[in-house]
Amino acid sequence: MVSLKNYNMKILWETAVVFCLCSLSLVSSHSRRFTTPSVTRITDQFSKIAIENGFSKRFGAHNILVNGSLAKLTLDKSSGAGLVSKSKYHYGFFSARLKLPAGFASGVVVAFYLSNAEDYPKNHDEIDIELLGRSRRDDWTIQTNVYANGSLKTGREEKFYFWFDPTQAFHDYTLIWNSHHIVFLVDNIPVREFPNRGAFTSAYPSKPMSLYVTVWDGSDWATHGGKYPVNYKYGPFVASVADVALNGCSINNGSSTRSGPCTKSGGSVSSLDPVDGQDFATLSKNQITAMDWARRKLMFYSYCSDKSRYKVMPAEC
Prior knowledge:
This protein has helices at about 5-25, 50-55, 285-295, and strands spanning about 55-60, 65, 70-75, 80-85, 90-100, 110-115, 125-130, 140-145, 160, 170-175, 180-185, 190-195, 210-215, 235-250, 265, 300. The protein has about 325 residues and is mostly beta strands. It has one domain: Jelly Rolls. The strands form two sheets. It has an eight-stranded antiparallel β-sheet with strand order 1-4-13-6-7-8-9-16. It starts with a helix and ends in a 15-residue tail after the last strand. The relative contact order is 0.21.
């Protein structure tokens, strides 16, 4: 016969086990504590614009709300939503603060990217930050990618875990594109550099591009290769956009090519100009240290390590 004391201990033990198992199932990648590297907040050095001054509604106009420097883009059963810059740019500094949809958002894609696919449908360039929605098992992830001259068969993806919860507050997402390199930054921490030298040059974007901010249904690929599609019972999915910086070589809307000196838009930042300033020709020592931290701690996929995908690895690998 089991004593009352032993019976109570048994109940307490079983309850503790269940609690621990449930807690483990709820642990997220951004719940881990990270000591982030110290970096210069370069986003503070560039002026921000009102959304309506810099962007047009590209699709899903009924799902876009704009209020000064803030926009809310919604994905629901009817449509996603997207903004496109009014100007095209050949090199520049592009940044926005984004807050991602909360809750289960499998299959949802929030993208901040440069592209000229509409002007060059057969040989377009693209520089992507794509934020891929969470499932019940996994958190949001960061995917970066580069295409040049229509090189769609060679996806140059790299994927990272977040070191924070991107649904709870606004965070900075930045692209630097100039003649020296492309740099992807999150909260001013470089996570990837794509240099314009050596074997990388053949895959380097070279034509003017527009900046896009979008939210859309990526059910067929975004979360675990399409295993977890968008479940609209958890929607609508709202992505918030604020404090956008568009600083670069502005190309007239009537032209798709750069001719003569470019117009530096977005204010006077000549000493820190990403087009021709030496401050943006290379990463600083602190930035290199921070990027090494991000890639060691948070990167979980690189195309250059995917031997099952490529029989012959891309030249830059």
